[in-house]
Amino acid sequence: MKRAVFLDRDGTINIEKEYLYKSEDFEFIPGVPEAIRMLNQAGTMVVVVTNQSGVARGYYTEDDIINLHRHITRELERSDAYVDVWLYCPHHPDGRGSYALPCNCRKPLPGMLQEAATRYDIDLDNSIMIGDKLADIEAGQAAGCRTILVRTGYGAQVEQAIGPQVTVCDDLLSAVKFLL
Length: 180
Ligand SMILES: [Zn+2]
Fold this sequence. Notes:
By secondary structure, this protein is α/β, with parallel strands linked by helices. The chain has helices spanning 32-41, 62-77, 111-120, 134-143, 155-161, 172-179, and strands spanning 4-7, 45-51, 85-89, 128-131, 146-150, 167-169. The chain is built from six helices and six strands; from the N terminus they run E-H-E-H-E-H-E-H-E-H-E-H.
């Protein structure tokens, strides 16, 4: 079985911008390509799991998400880094049409992590979820992973609200250095 690091996207990989979908608005948090390259070199699977309720809300489409992820892939290539798997949840209970689902993939539920584990033979007990929101930590815990909160994005605010049992690092690069 494989070991994975599950990464939240907005606020963890890139600077948090409300309902980001345009590649020209995408901006890495400093050190992120290097951090992902270190995970690649360590033989750890890198799986991005991101809530994208902007689709359900009608702000952008699934194609926009896929195009943005292609852009991020190209940007990572410049640093010899890559994401193994991109997963997103387009749903929201208050959304529109077929996206208006109480699904099991929207974090804090662990559906995306569990789906990745089934598809790619990932050992969740030996894997880590890293993110900047409480929903990331809760999804990781629900899947049986270790968790790290980063202080980028909303993380510094979340840190004030949670107990001392959660591991906290300044950003993704320091989290990866802590892990490896
Ligand atoms: Zn979903």
